[in-house]
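Before going further, learn to read the protein records used in this course. The integers have meaning only within a learned vocabulary of local backbone shapes. The record below shows the convention in full.
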Amino acid sequence: MKQFSFAFAITFCAALPIVKAQNTSAKDTAPSKTVSVAQGEVARWAGNCQRCSFEKRAWAAVNGTCYYPVDMDMKAGTYTISRRTTGGKLESAKLTVTEKACKQEDIANFPKKEYVNVSAQNLARAAKEAAVVNPIISYKAEVRPAVFDLPVGKPADPLPRGEGNFGACRTFDGQPRDRHTGQDYPVTGGKPVLSVGNGRVVLAANQFFSGNVVFIDHGNGLVTEYFHLKNFTVKPNQTVTKGQKIGVVGETGRVTGPHLHFGVRWHGACINPGFLLIDPSDMPEVK
């Protein structure tokens, strides 16, 4: 595999509410509609939606459609989802989460040894950085209204085919590490990195594992992540627009070469960012 195909970002473990798979129906009506979604994917329920819920979590619809992001580590099983229509009707359905096999990446002779045998000082630094990131990517009961449309824009133009390593299980010189939380794109170093939608920068900083990073809040609990940048051209609390340059592709942090790492957290769920780049009608749909 080419050098640039590897992206290595620390997994920030934002704790989702503990949810158990179950088969009980909502009080109002027994659900007759269903949808099947693999771990890390997104389901949709279109048509005059106002409010959406997924077990104990709830959020507003986006342009009349309910979206249900499924975390890549969510336990396989059947869960209850529901929606409140603009007419006030409460409807429920069953969402079945299927297990998605973890792609194995074994990286031998990793060049940056300080990221394999990490010093106590750098471990302490990474822990402090995770404490900053976790609240940003965690589920929140109240969020700003959505300022994005689906599909979102591309994080680079042109955007090459992704490396297919979202959720990969990895080892470095034989040592197991966290799963890969984003998708890597073999974009040449020095190329512009673009915000995929309107939003507000919530973090722009240098971090040990992820290098130079930018996190953007697009409302409705959607946060996008851009890692390993050579540099960034935005600052926290800055408002950005879709397609705006936010930095430059680089190879900072735990990487083997320049590339673009693009990640997405939606309502606290770590999902394959490719699902936001496709037409929503191509997502698994409640029927």
Remarks:
- The domain at 101-282 is CATH 2.70.70.10 (Glucose Permease (Domain IIA)).
- The first helix runs from residue 120 to 137.
